[in-house]
Amino acid sequence: QPSCSRAGRMLQLLAIRDTPTPRENILLLAHTVLGRSTLTRIRDVSCSRDQVELIPNLADKTVQVKQLGRNPSFVNDHPLSRGEVEVLRLGDVLSLTADLLHSSYELNLAPPNIKQPGQRTNDAVSAEAAAPRSPDVHRHQHRH
């Protein structure tokens, strides 16, 4: 029986951490558009809010990158023109702006136990299942 964690290895953009305010790694589950945002922590207006389009291919462990923004992004220091498409392979570096120190991500496999949005890791499920439950403990859900 195949292991779910091996079969389900996902791709992530690993933030190259060189800033006083660390950026988040970005899990690539599906078609994604990245640019100037709170997620990337890029504030430079030379970076469009829709700077690049990313389409992961989990079978090949690659990501298709399409340049959307007016100013170039970079794949392994190669500048992309608007509309240009490049393929990221494991270990390749994508930089969203010319400021390579503060906008660069390396394509890697996500750890097998990474927490997906809306899901718990296997470790969290195991720890919760092992904990004794009291009948008077209720879970509260926040409603918006």
> Structural class, please?
mainly beta
- What is the tally of helical segments? 2
Mean pLDDT: 77
Q: Tally the beta strands.
A: 10
Q: Report helical residue fraction.
A: under 10%
Proportion of residues in β-strands: 25-35%
Strand order of the largest sheet: 2-1-10-9-6-7
Question: Termini separation (Å)?
Answer: 41 Å
Characterize the overall form. Answer: globular
SSE order: HEEEEEEEEEEH
Main beta-sheet strand count, sense and barrel state: 6 strands, antiparallel
Radius of gyration: 18 Å
Q: Which residues form runs of ≥5 with pLDDT under 50?
A: 1-7, 118-144
Question: How are the SSEs ordered, and which strands pair?
Answer:
Layout: H1 4-7, E1 11-15, E2 26-28, E3 32-34, E4 52-57, E5 62-67, E6 74-75, E7 78-79, E8 85-89, E9 93-95, E10 104-109, H2 122-130
Antiparallel strand pairs: 1-2, 1-10, 3-4, 4-5, 5-8, 6-7, 6-9, 9-10
Give a summary of the structure in a few sentences.
The protein is mainly beta and 144 residues long.
Key words describing this protein structure:
single chain, 144 residues, mainly beta, six-stranded antiparallel beta sheet, four-stranded antiparallel beta sheet, 2 helices, 10 strands, 28% strand, globular, disordered C terminus
Account of the protein in words:
The structure is a single chain. This protein has 144 residues and is mainly beta. It has 2 helices and 10 strands; from the N terminus they run H-E-E-E-E-E-E-E-E-E-E-H. The chain has helices at 4-7, 122-130; strands at residues 11-15, 26-28, 32-34, 52-57, 62-67, 74-75, 78-79, 85-89, 93-95, 104-109. It has a 6-stranded antiparallel beta sheet with strand order 2-1-10-9-6-7, with no helix packed on it. Strands 3-4-5-8 form a 4-stranded antiparallel beta sheet, with no helix packed on it. Strand 6 (74-75) and strand 7 form a beta hairpin. The radius of gyration is 18 Å and the shape is globular. The termini are far apart. Mean pLDDT is 77; it is low at 1-7 and 118-144.
